[in-house]
Amino acid sequence: MKIKISxxxxxxxxxxxxxxxxxxxxxxxxxxxxxxxxxxxxxxxINVVRADxxxxxxxxxxxxxxxxxKWYNRKFNVDDLMKQFNLEDAGKVRxxxxxxELNQRLSFIHSLLCEQKNILFIEPFFQATRENIHLFHKLxxxxxxxxxxxxxxxxxxxxxxxxxxxxxxxxxxxxQEVETEDSASxxxxxxxxxxxxxxEDKTLxxxxxxxxxxxxxxxxxxINISREKFVMESTLQEAEKTLGSHxxxxxxxxxxxxxxxxxxxxxxxxxxxxxxxxxxxxxxxPLSRTKYNEIQERLITL
Amino acid sequence: xxxxxxxxxxxxxxxEFMRNMMLFTSVLIPIVLAAxxxxxxxxxxxxxxxxxxxxxxxxxxxxxxSSMITMMAEENEKDTLRGLLQSPATIxxxxxxxxxxxxxxxxxxxxxxxxxxxxxxxxTIENIAGLILLGIFFLxxxxxxxxxxxxxxxxxxxxxxxxxxxxxxxxxxxxxxxxGHIARQIAEYFPLYQNLYILNGNGGMPEFLILFAWIAVxxxxxxxxxxxxxxxx
Lengths: 302, 233
What we know:
The complex is a heterodimer of chains A (about 300) and B (about 230).
Chain A: E1 2-4, H1 6-9, E2 16-18, E3 24-28, H2 31-40, E4 46-49, H3 61-71, H4 78-84, H5 100-113, E5 118-122, H6 130-145, E6 149-154, H7 157-163, E7 167-171, E8 174-178, E9 194-199, E10 202-207, E11 213-217, E12 220-225, E13 228-232, H8 236-243, E14 248-252, E15 255-258, E16 262-269, E17 272-277, E18 284-287, H9 292-301
Parallel strand pairs in A: 3-6, 3-7, 4-5, 5-6
Antiparallel strand pairs in A: 1-2, 7-8, 9-10, 11-12, 11-15, 12-13, 14-15, 16-17, 17-18
Helix pairs in contact in A: 3-5, 5-6
Chain B: H1 3-19, H2 21-40, H3 49-78, H4 81-84, H5 88-117, H6 125-146, H7 155-167, H8 172-175, H9 182-187, H10 191-200, H11 205-232
């Protein structure tokens, strides 16, 4: 199963989004492309897992799961399924009263029960709770065992890295692999307290201590400060040099994180890690496998 | 047809039916009406057959027809069908499962109403055969129109005319008192009148043939519904 990308990006391209049996693809793309991909996906072959799947609002969660189970003629034990997705206490909750978190778990269960061999996840981590991200990883392994193929489409690069370390990016030039090998870091002592950034036509000077993390995306470096993104006119290498002595750490090829803002490190699966930032959104920054031990040392000696 | 799927839909829709106040009360409406009419006759001669047949008309429009279009409209409105429809055959499973629920509810509503209205010699073979044909007509009408309705709010647009035309047909005798009037002559060919004649005991071949003709019309409605839906998708 594959989807032609020329229909999504609107320009000529021979590339396809491949659904490989037992494989997982994580693709970052713009919101516009994401919407078009969702429309293009033929429900006959692809089960689309959205944040808000349509449900029978009058039924409770248990009835809903047993309905899917019977409809798709699966022999799952409904109680086991509910246990696996931490729904044991929610069985009697009517779907009209169930929140987004429970609805997402139901969409996960649906992808497990459905007949289609191909599963397309649309923004599974958008406003997802941490428990659901853990459940996603369990589900991913289970779907792999069933021989299903998974494509995860997200708008934020960090979210793509939540799936796995190897990710793709869909741009107007087609589908490209995002390079993720790590480059050697360089230390440099330099006493500066502010950094120059651009926001549209203004130039701002922000306190280095306020920066949460830096990301490089399509050749530009973005500085993230409490929900805002600013462009920095430098490369990530240069930024690493200037900020290295201020407790910043290159945790990933495309990310530099302010160690002072790190709240915790989460292990999603054996080679997928995240650094959680201490901010209201709990931003999750990808952490390379090779940096997993080093960042811990840096955090201890900070 | 996949019986496991039909059973799954049946089980789900029974649960939904019981929890949907709009559908659940529709079963009660004819029962309450029957209780009223049953108490109204003081002379002890029994309720006139016209009233009995109007109760039957209410059962078939308020329960059979209305529930079918409401259930289909709700699936269309909430977009719950799309996830289930992977092959064209599955819509048949869904409709069969839903029809089974509605037939069950129709029988409950009809039997309870007739018991309350205390009419004698209602359950004769001819009458039951006539009622089954009438039921098929209204069920088909519900399926055909249900395939087209996009939201629950628009169901009343269809429900009102169908209810007055086919559910309350004998009421025309109160509106048009002139027996030879063209409207009354036309009304006598409507399905509910055939059931009235059968109930009166003077039903014969022509009445059943007219009912079969109406069923043929209802199948045309179903086919139109399917074709319209196919071209919409």
